[in-house]
Amino acid sequence: MTEEKESLTGRQWLVDKVDNSIKEGQTTIPAIENGICQRCGSSCWARLPSGFLYCRACVGLGRLDEGKLLVRQTAGSHYPARAGMTWTGQLQERQEGVSRFLLEKFAAKEDCLVEAVTGAGKTEMIFPLLAEAFSRGCRVAIATPRIDVVNELYPRLVAAFGEVEIGKYHGREEKEAANEQLVICTTHQLLKYYQAFDLLIIDEIDSFPYAGNPQLHFAAGNAVKKTGSRVFLTATPPEDLLKAARQGKLAIVRLNRRFHGYTLPVPRLDLYVKPFLTKGRLHPKLARRIKMAAKSGHPLLVFLPRIAQMPQYFAAVKRLLPDLRLATVYAQDPDRLEKVEKFRKGDLDLLLTTTILERGVTFKHVWVIIVAADDEIYSAASLVQIAGRVGRDKQDPDGLVLFGYRRYSRQIRSAVKQIKEMNRV
Amino acid sequence: MSLCLFCDQPFTGDLDMRRLLLPGKSKTSCLCPSCRQQFAQIGPAFCPQCGRQQDSGEICQDCQKWRRIYQGNFLHNQAVYCYNQAFHDLMVRYKRYGDYLLCQVLQELAAPAVQKLAADYYVPVPTSPEHRKKRGYDTVWEIFTPLLPLTPLLAKKAGAGAQGEKGKKARMQAKQNFFLNPEFRGTITGKIILLDDIYTTGRTLYHARDAIETAFPKCQVESFSISR
Lengths: 425, 228
Ligand SMILES: [Zn+2]
Ligand SMILES: [Zn+2]
Ligand SMILES: [Zn+2]
Fold this sequence. Notes:
Distance between the termini of chain A: 49 Å
Number of strands of chain A: 20
Number of helices of chain A: 11
Bound molecules: zinc ion
CATH class of the largest domain in chain B: Alpha Beta
Largest interface: A-B, 18 and 16 residues
Radius of gyration of chain B: 17 Å
Shape of chain A: globular
Strand content of chain B: 15-25%
Oligomer: heterodimer
CATH topology of the largest domain in chain A: Rossmann fold
Strand content of chain A: 15-25%
Family (chain B): Belongs to the ComF/GntX family.
Mean pLDDT of chain A: 88
Largest sheet of chain A: 7 strands, parallel
Helix content of chain A: 25-40%
Organism (chain B): Lactobacillus leichmannii
Protein name (chain B): ComF family protein
CATH superfamily of the largest domain in chain A: P-loop containing nucleotide triphosphate hydrolases
Helix content of chain B: 25-40%
Number of domains of chain B: 2
Number of domains of chain A: 3
InterPro entries (chain B): ComF/GntX_DNA_util-trans, PRTase-like, PRTase_dom
Order of helices and strands of chain B: EEHHHEHHEHHEHEEHE
């Protein structure tokens, strides 16, 4: 990892020792204090042969050792005060309500939580808030845990705010940092910022347990200015944020309908007695389901719980439907972004995937099958998210969501219940 | 419960026979079962000269080239793991990011094969001085030092750069950067096994071998790399 050579507003970076490279408007602190990494907030326990501690949690950003210093550029850049919005779309009445709420809370410098079902049009709902922030010359970041979501948000925001400088940052893209007014990045990238933003929006806050993830917590606190405010967006709010909302520490607003006004597709439950795959062959019922879905002409996402099984499933589906354009994708897949793009463009018919595509991504007309929905890897929230991939388009608000399972788990029950509840409101 | 050093997930660590061989370390594995599964052992067929995984037991293309370059005086290398995505990620984190603790994962992967090595001297391929300074450790030395008695016979020139940052062609054209460690006194005879983390083109290990053979022509030199 390359260290930043130039100092940019609101960034923090490591140096070995105090020297004359440290300029006015910069502060320095010891990189590790009381065993806590000052960049990511994790407690450090691993030691180098020298005996010095280092932080394993954020090692990908350049190793942070005891004895090094963290330099923070606090002096501010100024941004033109103009809304910069080129988006001319219309919000629905329900979205409009949420949007107004966000504007009020931003004016009052309060943090807030937006609970909105997947497909509720969360991104559009924040456009007026962004425009308001830009018109005050504020600097804004939108962070999300997933690279795919960053890649999907970026072009939408570039189109919606043609007059604003926008930067995109994630670990898979080597790019010199710049001082853009709007930063779209993975939550991990927030660790490079210190009191940089007037408004910080964190999307899909639940895809990691917020409370159980000290890094994310730390980053969300550090990257925003003391005078700034935060917005958390989620379909399935984590318990600690709900608790903060109940205690009045966090404003909360809910939106239960999708922006096209239709309900969420309710998952079809499909019980299997025998294994899904035996000796390289799919269970006949699962084979029928996949065939049926493929024949319908809908692009199909098939979720598998384990990477290790993917080659066998790939071979089995290939044998079943030799003409189908098929690929596997998982987090460490070097071609992951390309394959997702091909699937989006319709150059692939079926994608065998792990949970990396469970949320945030939109594929038109997609249908979904979860193999082994009872696997421990799926929380109720992730099952709801996966179901939420389907029916996001006004033209095609319904579609197949199939949970294949051998044991009716608590998570499956809870996911179906949540979806039905959301549809009722 | 232990924490997996590779994925940070908690898992119930069974007593691992491989770990029993490591002196002074925890006797449970430092890899969870699903991470361990991602590391693929070489076999059943491999190149008998460099240890690369392949469909047949014939000498591979690269090795035939080495035989031509060295007029038959080739280096015999033993390797244990395929250089797959998991191994690549492990090395990026251990070498590029400098996550020192991962030397324990490499030790655990290498230990069973290392126990079976038999030589008079074990010589690790050295890191360049500037990389050692930047990382705070010598990558190969730290992996093998708890497993074998090491002899620091070689040193690497400053400014030589790391092989890992070069393309295949640039690696093959790299110049000899190893020389006899000036602090080493005495003479050496018998069998030497050179130790490295990855055998990529073979260029590094051949250079290391050449440096030793020039100084001690009577020695018999072989090599061991954790991955190929
Ligand atoms: Zn850290
Ligand atoms: Zn693991
Ligand atoms: Zn070979």
